[in-house]
Amino acid sequence: MKRIRISRCGAQLMGAQAPRRPICPHAAQRQDVAPHHHRIQLRWASSLMAAARKPNEIEIDPAEEAAEESSIDLSEALTASSTAKPPQPPPETLPSPHPSRALKSAKLAALRSRLSLPPRFPLQTLARTLVHPSADPNPHFNNGSMSILGANLLGYYTTEHLLCNYPRLPMSVVFAAQYAYIGPKALATIASEWGIEAAAEPGGEVDPGLLQFKRARSGDEDFPSALKEVKAPWKWNVTTTHKIVSSDEFGSTKARPDPQQLTGQPVPIEEAAQSFVRALIGSLYLHLGSPLVKRFYRDHFLSRHLDLNKLFDFRTPTRDLSRLCAREGFEAPVARLISETGRLSRHPVFVVGVYSGKDKLGEGSGSSLDEARIRAAAAALKGWYLYKPLEVTVPSSLEGEVDTSKWKPNMVDCGEVIV
Amino acid sequence: MPLSAIKTVAKAQNGVGAFILQCKRLDFHYSNWAGSSRGMNAFIRSQLPVFAKNNPQIEIRVSPRGNKHPVIIGHYINGKTKPICVRNMTPEGVREKTELLRDASGEKLKRVNKPVTSLNESVRGIWSPFHGAKIQI
Question: Looking at the structure, do residues A339 and A248 belong to the same domain, yes or no?
Fold first, then answer.
C-alpha cells in the first residue's frame, strides 16, 4: 500500500531541500572534521555558509516520517536517526559510490600506498579520479576536470624534458616520443601496471577502489564518435606547425575529445584507464603541489625505458645528410670504405664511413656497399639529431622560485633539415 | 616526408624509478571447525594485523570457508593468482608462506640462466673483426 509522504506535503514548512549529495567530496567529511586550512576556516566562519548548512541539519525529520513507508525504509531511517546524520539515499540509486565510502575501501588504501602517495592525499579524491564521466555525468563527482588538468601537466613535463634534453630532435620524433611516454596506450598500460581493476558496471554500491565507467561492448552501435579513429583525407594545410598548435601533443590530426562529451556514453576500458591516470596527476597537483607531482612523474613515467635511437625512420638519409652538411657549412659528405670481407662470397660485409673532410660523421655496415653507405648516413644523422647538452635546466624546475640565478638558457636549434 | 617516426610504447622498468609491489591482494580462507586450520586461525588472530600494518600496499581479505583446508591466495598485478594450501601448518609456517606470496612476482617460475638481463645495449658493443688493431699473420 502506498501512502502519501507527509514530508512532501509539509515541504514548504521545512525550508529549502538539501542537495541529495554534498556538492564536493569533502563536504561530507567537513561536518565532523575540524577545519585546518585558514582559507577553509574563513569560509566556514562566514554566516552565509552556516545558513547554507542548516537545511542539512533538519533533514532528520523527513527520514523519521518516511519510516512508515516500507520495512526497507524503516531500517534505513532507524540507522539514520540513531546516528543523527542526514539520511543517505540507498547506494543503488547513485551513479557512483558516495565519497564517504572511500574511507572504508581496502582497495583504495592499498592503491594509495602502492603508489607511495602521502597520507595527506585524501582517499575521497583518489576515489573520484576512478570515476569516468561515462559512469557519473555530474562534473562534481567524475574525473573529467581533473583529467584535463592532468593531461596538460603530463604534456608539459614530457615536452620540456624532450625539448630541453634533445634540442635537435625532429618534430615527428618528438611526437612519437610523447606518444611513447604519455600516449593513450602508454597510460592504459601504466594503469594496469598499477593494479587498477575495473568494475563490471558502475553504480553507487560498487567498491570505490574499482575503475567506474560504462563499458562499451563489442559491436556497440552507440560508440562515441569522439573516440572513433577517422583517417582524415590529406589536406595541404595540415602542416607540422598546425599539428603543434591545434591538435593534441602526439601530432594527430584532431584534438583529444573533451571528457564531458563522453558523459553517459559507453567507452572502452583503455579510455577510462587513461582518464584515471591523467586525473590522478591533476589531483596530485592540486593536493600536493608541483614538486611532488614532478617527482611522481619522474618515478613513474620518465623512468620507463625508451630508446629514442629506434624511433627514427629515414626515407633518404644520404640526401638528408648532404642537405644538412650544406646548411651547417660542413664539407659535402663522402662515403669511404673502411673494411670489407668476402666481396665475392655469399655473405659479404662492408664497413663504410661517411666523412666530411677529415671528420668521420658516421659508420655503418651492410651486406652491400649501398646498404652500408645508407646505414652510415643514418648513423650520422642520428648523431646530429640526438645531441644532448650536458647541463639542462627545465622551465618547470624554477616554478614559484624567487631566485632565478640558477636558470641557464637552453639551446634552441633551428630544426630538422627540410628536403 | 624525408623522416617519419615509429610509434612505440615505453617499457616499464619496475624499481628503476618507483617500485610497485606485484602482489595486490591476499585472500585468507580458514575454517573454524576443521583442525587443519588451527595454525592458520592462530596466525590470523595474532600475526595478521601486524603483517597488514607492515604491508599497506596489499589488500587483505579474510573469509571462513567451512569443511575445507585453509588456503592463502595471492592475486598479482599481471592477473595471475597463486594459491597455497596451509593445512596443519604452525603459525610460523603460515607466516613464511604469506611472505613468500607477498614477495612473489606472479610470473610463472622460470629458470634464469643469464646473470644479467637488460634492455640496454652493452656499453662495450659487439666485437667486430673489422675494427681495432690489424693482426699480422
Answer: no
